């Protein structure tokens, strides 16, 4: 960028690499915070929706039976809600210079893999260590993919 004072060219001022790196790190941080907030909001809304759907099958005076019917729905709802909330939050928190669609697709693919991996554990209501690892790592991977896609530069 050139600096012009009084119509006379005085110097060429370039953005320093350190400032550009700091700006990029700030963008990544904002996108990450947005993704984490999206995870929380999506999980809460999804769990509530899953619980409400499962509650329709509950007999009103059998609490244990009602819980066993609503917990899987709440779990899947929270997982699906987080899978939507993470890329949306990362996009909103980021610079918004790219489309959110690739991040949503990436998150959906990771969610699909998670479903295929842990569905048997949810239905037998018994989780092994590998199931807990998958449930823990899937949102982290979704967040990493979403932040990377939200903060990438256009070619």
Give a written overview of the molecule.
The chain has one domain (45-155). The protein has four helices and two strands, in the order ββαααα. It has helices at 17-55, 63-93, 101-124, 129-150, and strands at residues 2-5, 8-12. Helix 1 runs antiparallel to helix 2 (63-93) and helix 1 crosses helix 4.
Which features would summarize this protein structure in a list?
4 helices; mainly alpha; 155 residues
Q: In what order do the strands lie side by side in the largest sheet? A: 1-2
> How would you describe the shape?
elongated
Q: Give the % helix.
A: over 70%
Mean pLDDT rating = 82
Largest sheet: 2 strands, antiparallel
| SS strand fraction | 5-15%
Work out the radius of gyration: 22 Å
| Tally of DSSP helical segments | 4
**Unreliable residue stretches:** none
Q: Give helix and strand order, one letter per element, not per position.
A: EEHHHH
Structural class: mainly alpha
- Total of domains: 1
Number of strands: 2
Q: Give the N-terminus to C-terminus distance in angstroms.
A: 21 Å
Compact summary:
With 155 residues, the chain is mostly helical. Helices cover 75% and strands 6% of the residues.
List the helices and strands and how they pair.
Elements lengths: L1 E4 L2 E5 L4 H39 L7 H31 L7 H24 L4 H22 L5
Antiparallel strand pairs: 1-2
Helix pairs in contact: 1-2, 1-4, 2-3, 2-4, 3-4
């Amino acid at each position: 960028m050139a600096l012009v004072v009084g119509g006379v060219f005085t110097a060429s001022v370039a953005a320093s690499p350190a400032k550009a790196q700091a700006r990029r790190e700030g963008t990544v941080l904002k996108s990450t915070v947005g993704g984490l907030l999206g995870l929380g909001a999506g999980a809460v809304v999804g769990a509530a929706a899953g619980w409400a759907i499962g509650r329709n099958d509950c007999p009103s005076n059998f609490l244990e039976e009602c819980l066993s019917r609503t917990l899987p729905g709440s779990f899947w709802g929270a997982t699906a809600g987080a899978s939507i909330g993470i890329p949306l939050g990362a996009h909103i928190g980021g610079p918004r210079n790219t489309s959110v669609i690739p991040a949503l697709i990436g998150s959906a693919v990771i969610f699909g893999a998670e479903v295929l991996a842990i569905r048997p554990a949810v239905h037998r209501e018994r989780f092994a260590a590998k199931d807990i690892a998958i449930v823990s790592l899937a949102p982290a991977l979704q967040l990493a993919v979403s932040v990377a896609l939200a903060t990438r530069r256009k070619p």
